[in-house]
Input
Amino acid sequence: MKSIAARRHDRRAPLVLLALALLLTGVLYALAAPGRADAAPLAGQADVAAGAKLFQANCATCHGVGAVGTSVAPSLVGVGAAAVDFQVGTGRMPMTMSGPQAQAKPVQFTQDQISQLAAYVASLGPGPEIPTAEMVDPSKGDPATGMAIFRTNCAMCHNAVGAGGSLTQGKFAPNLWQTTPTHLYEAMLTGPQSMPVFNDANITPEEKRDVIAFISQQGGTQPGGLDLGSLGPVSEGLWAWVVGLGLIIGAAVWIGAKSS
Amino acid sequence: MSSVDHYTGPANLPEGHGPQELPERFENPGLPEHKPRMGDVDPKVDKRRERIVLALFGFSTLGTIGFLVAYFALPTGKDVETIHRSNLWLGLGLAASLLGIGLAAIQWAKSIMNNEEKVEERHPMASRPEVREGAIKNLTDGAKDSGISRRGLLKSAVVGSILLFPLTIAVPLIGEIGGDWNVSKLKHTMWKKGLRLTQDPSGRPIKASDVTIGSVWHVIPDGLDKTAQPLNEKAKAVVLVVRLDPRDIKSEQIPGASYEGILAFSKICTHVGCPVALYEQQTHHLLCPCHQSTFDVTNGAKVVFGPAKRPLPQLPITVDDQGYLVAQSDFDQPVGPSFWERLR
Amino acid sequence: MSTPNTSAAGKAAGATADWLDQRTGVGVAVKGLARKLFPEHWSFMLGEIALYSFITLLITGVFLTMFFVPSSTDVTYTGPWAALQGTTMSAAFASTLRLSFEVRGGLLMRQVHHWAALIFLAAIVTHMLRVFFTGAFRKPREINWIIGFVLLTLGLAAGFSGYSLPDDVLSGNGLRITDGLIRGLPIIGTYVSYFVFGGEFPGQDLIPRLFTVHVLLVPGLILALVGLHLAFVFMHKHTQFPGSGRTNNNVVGYPFFPVYTAKAGGFFFIVFGVIALLGATMQINPVWNYGPYDPSPVSAGAQPDWYMLFLEGSLRLMPGAAEVVIGNFTIPLNVLIPGLVAPLVLLGPLAVYPFIEAYATGDHREHHLLDRPRNAPFRTAFGLSILAAFFVLLLAGSNDLLATHFHLSLNDITWTMRFAFFILPAIVFTVTRRVCLALQRKDRELVLHGHESGRIVRFASGEYIEVHTPLDEHERWIRVQHEPIRPVQIAPAEDARGVRRKRYGADARRRRVSRLFFETRVEPVTPAEYAAAQEHGALEGGDGEHRQVTASGEPESISRS
Output
């Protein structure tokens, strides 16, 4: 570089060259790096400002001004856009009352408003980002790997096929059959409420997509017939007594009855 | 307090004298009169009942045919829908085939067969006295013929040798059935100094820096799949790794066993051995789903609820020079459920 | 010998019968059994439900053995189930998947087999309850009761060994729990664990061993004992409910051939058919969702089949503090008490109940007439209170599902059940006993005063009465036929010279137990009481006035006592 610059007559030439090199690197990087979420376009300053207003009106009473946290709710600095998209997008937030179990409720905001809230919280500190559509596309995941990971990491709370399960003191892990792929991804990534965090070193993004592929296959037609809630032997036993023995004893009563 | 509701009037009246005498208890009024069914008196109803039975047998035959059609026409083994369809139609055909016969037979018995109640006498179960005496006489005669009376040694010899001979079967059966009987293996796992902690089931080693606060990692020892009996080793060696903010740790089970807030505990419940897999990130509790034993990670995995008694054994860990988590040694006690000699 | 049927089929049947009889002398049996009478009541068919579901198990079981591979050797799955593609699993698990997905009718047979197992045990329990509450276990049927109990235990063993065969995560965790229980036995625990598993858990030996137990040993024992159980029923003749024409010394019913051949035979098809309906429409034990057994994963909602839930519940309820360390030796009472002691305490008294009751009544006669449960208040209350304890354990075993479905706290449910296990049976006992006594009093009222007809009659004097229709003799008989059971009488403690009798202590104990059972009782109406009620008016609480009223409502005669 020095030789070229040396033959130029302007002493600012090296600086310009440096700037050009940086620009080139930046453009190449922007082209080669994985794309950002399509659902949530790159947050502009307008989104952040709108999100701040929404946050002030709906969230600051519990989470504090500037989301630094209060005695009833934790700080949201660093939780990332993914956490907000999940919590608000499933209706868990705003919570009706502070506690360890946030119930999924009817969603209070439009998707645009959720994106704005997410942009605002993301602007407070770096954190997990919202996944792209490709990252959560079930058709691209391998359900066999997904099941193997789900079995070891998830089934003990959510049940072998995601039908849901009990935790202590009234908390529970919910049924996953109606959860969108994006929300599944975000939950794994951010570890909402009682759920642990499964960062990308623990369950890689591809493995997360495999889990999504596995879950997307659950909750539909079962090979053996009605799934009775997929809850296991207890519901099977209940049906055996009520339906099975009920019908059979009904037949026995008919057999023993006097005929006219 | 006792209360008896019974007659407190005049004492029992004598029997068989005059119109005032009454038996002590009511007498059985005898079988009620047989009421014939409609089908017994009306031939039209009888014909209709017969047709019902025939129809039910026909229904069964239709069911059998339906089953056979489903068997040949419906494939299985492609996807969930085909498997379900095959199972459903085969099953409905089978059910119809069976229920038709059952309903027909019962309807026949109820509506067509003679339903007049009949009476039969019972006899006492015990044999008649002369039969019993005859039996006793036969046995005594036989005993006399055998010559066993007053030969006490002979009696003991018979009993003794017959009681002993099953040992020839029982001893090798029991002796071989227990494998190598080396129960001391229960006290050790394959964890040892320097062995890397890897992810279950992929086997990827774990960097300490990847273990963030609030995460939980399911861990197996490096090289598990190369052991002779991987499942047997895994059944003792599975471990759970969590990271706490060091300020949240109230007490440690083994001082120096954790690494910068990263704690590793045996995943085998100390109650009866299920995997203690549920980690509640907010309460820092580990919950076993089988019988709900709850362990507090901030207090050295002590039991806070449920039928377990002992805390989960802690695996002492540190990092190797590349930053991966490794064990410092094996557990300091046998993992899993208690057994008699676990502290020896 | 002339037969009414001279068709070709009839001739062939006759020839066959003759051929057999000449070689076996079977004519005697046929003569004796063909027209044997059996009394009719739907509750007598509960044992048949167990028998027929057992036959269903045998039939479908044979089908399954043609495809199931009882081996723990690892294979890689290459079948149609996408979520398990390429997964390493035991041959047992893989063959279960192949049977379910790739064999036509395989899934149906498997599901019918498993539903039949659940119904088999439900029927055994229901049948046992019927026999208990009607007193059908009394002499001469005590042996049959014990055989039935052993059959219940064998049924549990068959079910447990059966659902563990596919080697999936759910049943495998059940085996792990069993190993934990076995290990806890003092002194011998670890050796018994090695005995069962052929070494350390899980080992390679268990699945093949369970297969032998499940397919050969247990069914063989069940078949033998069921044969004995049925032989006794034929020999003793079936018990019957009290009613007109039925005495302790007769059997009133219908002949085995043709009525019960058709009814019982038809019922077999109904039982099999209903179970087939379940297998066709309702999925059971989807092992492909649980995955092949591995000691690491576990699913929420980890329960055994319903008949083992009482053990599961007792394990969940026991507080952990009970583990005891003596020197270097550990005795996990927190596992041994719920796993061994509690079932023994609950089931033991039931197993020997015939002898307990015989001790309390001092009754050595044969009983072939059944009790209406209300006429045996102590027995009914005792049975229901044990049932209440089992029910609490059943709910405790499902506590995590109750928590999620009814939005309750798991821990609160556990605490409630811990107390309920002791309190509920006591409450149920007291309430049931009182209800039985009250029902007996109601029966007395009904006999003495008749049905309330709802017809009100007003006399000229202005008085209103309700007309009662007296019971006919058949209705009355059911309510008065039972014998009042009174506490045993024993000889006085000292004889005429004041010398204390040696056996007095034992007799006094027996009388105490007998009083516990029978001191509080309601006795049936006697003819004398009935006559008095007819003549003198109401015996209890009335003002002594009673009018005879004709069918048209006119007063017939007035009498005052």
